[in-house]
């Protein structure tokens, strides 16, 4: 089996800012697999927070043997971006070989559209109110927060700009236990439904001792099924992202395991193209929160991109993936 990796850049529609910094483009890696008769592809977004770079992830993929299966990948690569791109490319390749859709190969029903969050970039309150007003027609807004008392002003501004939207927030590990205690009741009053990763991964034990009046979702603290044991008593929900699990194969298994342990499920993404989101639309079916807005943040996208409309994000056409 031939493996090729390309580096692709997609310009963002506008500057995107979170607590860790700003960007104007999405830099991704695309894995291309071919058996001589059929070809499949998958996309990943290397993430510096997890000590990944474009070079390191490309090297991991280049180091794979000539022949392997999806089952082999669990031992060949760790959970992360490299395994995600290859795993999703294998699903695409297998679907083309079989002349079936990927969800049929997974034994799942035909997916439908799912309402997705739209992410508001971190900014001053006035700017966030303007962002919210421009997107007030969207049913679910996700607000990036920076840590600190100004987060209340940001949410008040977002609520003023989009009075009818459901709101979730992402603290990106930027809060302390005391800040959670201060902010959580206020955010609940403002109609916020959930906060992602308020405390740093590895320093989140205090969540088991806090009355979680605002439900807490594990993001950086949850990668694959091996993460679940460390979440008990601290989190109410898990954010499953293909770039963390290492692909659709582990993500499906993690979703099943998380639900069995009583966690609600969020399906999230990095900022990437429709190719990166396509496998996650299968995973998103029935999730309590879906956050697959990557293509909505781009100024350009893949050919045959995902369709977004009032019903949500639709599953991919075969011309894109799966």
Descriptive key words:
322 residues, alpha/beta, eight-stranded parallel sheet, globular
The termini sit apart by: 18 Å
Q: Which regions are unreliable across 5 or more consecutive residues at pLDDT < 50?
A: none
> What Rg, in angstroms, do the CA atoms define?
19 Å
Number of helical runs? Answer: 10
Mean pLDDT: 95
Q: Which band does the percent of strand residues land in?
A: 15-25%
Largest sheet: 8 strands, parallel
Percent helix: 25-40%
Please give the number of β-strands.
Answer: 13
What series of H and E elements makes up the topology? EEEHHHHEHEHEHEEEHHEHEEE
> How are the strands of the largest sheet arranged?
4-5-6-7-8-9-10-11
User: SS-based structural class?
Assistant: alpha/beta
Apparent shape:
globular
């Amino acid at each position: 089996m031939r493996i090729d990796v390309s580096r692709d850049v997609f310009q963002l529609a506008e500057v995107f800012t979170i607590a860790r910094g700003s960007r104007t483009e999405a830099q991704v890696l695309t894995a291309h697999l071919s058996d001589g008769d059929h070809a499949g592809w998958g996309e990943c977004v290397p993430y510096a927070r997890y000590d990944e770079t474009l070079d390191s992830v490309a090297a991991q993929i280049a180091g794979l043997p000539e022949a392997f299966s999806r089952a082999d990948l669990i031992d060949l690569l760790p959970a992360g971006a490299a395994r995600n791109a290859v795993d999703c490319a294998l699903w695409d390749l297998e679907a083309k070989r079989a002349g079936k859709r990927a969800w049929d190969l997974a034994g799942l029903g035909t997916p439908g559209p799912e309402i997705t969050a739209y992410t508001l970039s971190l900014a001053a309150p006035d700017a966030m109110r303007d962002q919210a007003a421009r997107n007030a027609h969207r049913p679910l807004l996700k607000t990036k927060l920076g840590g600190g008392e100004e987060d209340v002003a940001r949410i008040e501004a977002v609520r003023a700009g989009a009075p009818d939207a459901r709101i979730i927030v992402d603290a990106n590990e930027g809060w302390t236990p005391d800040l959670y205690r201060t902010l959580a009741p206020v955010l609940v009053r403002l109609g916020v439904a959930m906060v992602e990763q308020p405390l740093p991964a590895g320093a989140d034990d205090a969540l088991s001792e806090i009355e979680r009046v605002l439900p807490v979702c594990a993001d950086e603290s949850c990668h694959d099924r091996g993460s679940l044991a460390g979440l008990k008593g601290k989190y109410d929900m898990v954010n499953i992202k293909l770039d963390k699990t290492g692909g659709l194969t582990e993500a499906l298994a993690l979703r099943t395991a998380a639900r069995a342990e009583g966690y609600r499920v969020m399906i999230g993404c990095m900022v990437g193209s429709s190719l990166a989101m396509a496998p996650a639309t299968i995973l998103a079916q029935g999730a309590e929160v879906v956050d697959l807005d990557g293509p909505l943040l781009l100024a350009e996208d893949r050919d045959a991109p995902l369709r977004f409309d009032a019903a949500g994000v639709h599953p991919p056409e075969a011309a894109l993936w799966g």
